[in-house]
Amino acid sequence: IRRITVPQIRARKGGDPIVSLTAYHAHTAAIAEKYCDFLLVGDSLGMVMHGMESTVGVSLDLMIMHGKAVVRGTKRALVVVDMPFGSYEESPAQAFRNAAKIMKETQCQAVKLEGGARMAETIKFLSGRGIPVMAHIGLTPQSTNIMGGFKTQGRDEDDWQFHIDDAKAVAEAGAFALVVEGVVEPLADKITKAVEIPTIGIGASKTCDGQILVMEDMLGLNDWVPKFVKKFGAVGAAIEDAIADYAEDVKSRAFPTPENVYKNK
Ligand code: KIV
Ligand code: NA
């Protein structure tokens, strides 16, 4: 197998930090995989790429379309595709049917789904039948309508045990890794210590076994980003500068230049 494998990611528990990003397209995925162990085709693409207000409206077909693009654009990184809201919660059988469809059509190596103890039975069902599952606990964006927005979890210590139990339940059920999103730092530390599978933090803690960010956020493509994002680039500003220069050159007929036009014989 030419790609990084699920067992290789699983074996990184407590080792060198796992580097990962979301990826939605062939071209950016090809750049990212030079540095990332795995790429996540996150359902955040509904908000980031398609202007939706939450991830609730993302369809299976949309995930498959972007999943195909990322798999085609890459050779080395493990590719994980998010299961969208409504495609897995009903029953283990529904989850298997849709996860298998994602894997067959995109050729990705694993799927991710949101939920802790309540999804344990489903995670066991899938991982026992050839589908590696990455779990996702803490702030689970598909539950935004229950939470009343994206709310950091574990601000109240009384809630910690609930999240620790979620982590243990998904690990026990056979998840190969666990995204821990939007929890207070000491809770993320406790979760990482509580399970023998790697934790992948986002808005969590540097002690997680790996980190993930939404690529567009860390690139600086959006003006506003949440506190947990560090902007490593200013790509939005770079795009705007280039487009402004282009518009100016078109209007002044400075573009196309002699090098940009074809000559006859
Ligand atoms: O959809 C997504 O981008 C995610 C990551 C933020 C973990 O689930
Ligand atoms: Na997601």
TrEMBL record:
<keyword id="KW-0489">Methyltransferase</keyword>
<dbReference type="GO" id="GO:0003864">
    <property type="term" value="F:3-methyl-2-oxobutanoate hydroxymethyltransferase activity"/>
</dbReference>
<dbReference type="Pfam" id="PF02548">
    <property type="entry name" value="Pantoate_transf"/>
</dbReference>
<feature type="binding site">
    <location>
        <position position="114"/>
    </location>
    <ligand>
        <name>Mg(2+)</name>
    </ligand>
</feature>
<feature type="active site" description="Proton acceptor">
    <location>
        <position position="181"/>
    </location>
</feature>
<dbReference type="GO" id="GO:0000287">
    <property type="term" value="F:magnesium ion binding"/>
</dbReference>
<comment type="function">
    <text>Catalyzes the reversible reaction in which hydroxymethyl group from 5,10-methylenetetrahydrofolate is transferred onto alpha-ketoisovalerate to form ketopantoate.</text>
</comment>
<dbReference type="GO" id="GO:0032259">
    <property type="term" value="P:methylation"/>
</dbReference>
<dbReference type="InterPro" id="IPR015813">
    <property type="entry name" value="Pyrv/PenolPyrv_kinase-like_dom"/>
</dbReference>
<feature type="binding site">
    <location>
        <position position="112"/>
    </location>
    <ligand>
        <name>3-methyl-2-oxobutanoate</name>
    </ligand>
</feature>
<comment type="similarity">
    <text>Belongs to the PanB family.</text>
</comment>
<comment type="subunit">
    <text>Homodecamer; pentamer of dimers.</text>
</comment>
<comment type="pathway">
    <text>Cofactor biosynthesis; (R)-pantothenate biosynthesis; (R)-pantoate from 3-methyl-2-oxobutanoate: step 1/2.</text>
</comment>
<keyword id="KW-0479">Metal-binding</keyword>
<keyword id="KW-0808">Transferase</keyword>
<feature type="binding site">
    <location>
        <position position="43"/>
    </location>
    <ligand>
        <name>Mg(2+)</name>
    </ligand>
</feature>
<feature type="binding site">
    <location>
        <position position="82"/>
    </location>
    <ligand>
        <name>Mg(2+)</name>
    </ligand>
</feature>
<protein>
    <recommendedName>
        <fullName>3-methyl-2-oxobutanoate hydroxymethyltransferase</fullName>
        <ecNumber>2.1.2.11</ecNumber>
    </recommendedName>
</protein>
<dbReference type="GO" id="GO:0015940">
    <property type="term" value="P:pantothenate biosynthetic process"/>
</dbReference>
<dbReference type="GO" id="GO:0005737">
    <property type="term" value="C:cytoplasm"/>
</dbReference>
<dbReference type="GO" id="GO:0008168">
    <property type="term" value="F:methyltransferase activity"/>
</dbReference>
<feature type="binding site">
    <location>
        <begin position="43"/>
        <end position="44"/>
    </location>
    <ligand>
        <name>3-methyl-2-oxobutanoate</name>
    </ligand>
</feature>
<feature type="binding site">
    <location>
        <position position="82"/>
    </location>
    <ligand>
        <name>3-methyl-2-oxobutanoate</name>
    </ligand>
</feature>
<keyword id="KW-0963">Cytoplasm</keyword>
<keyword id="KW-0460">Magnesium</keyword>
<dbReference type="InterPro" id="IPR040442">
    <property type="entry name" value="Pyrv_kinase-like_dom_sf"/>
</dbReference>
<keyword id="KW-0566">Pantothenate biosynthesis</keyword>
<dbReference type="InterPro" id="IPR003700">
    <property type="entry name" value="Pantoate_hydroxy_MeTrfase"/>
</dbReference>
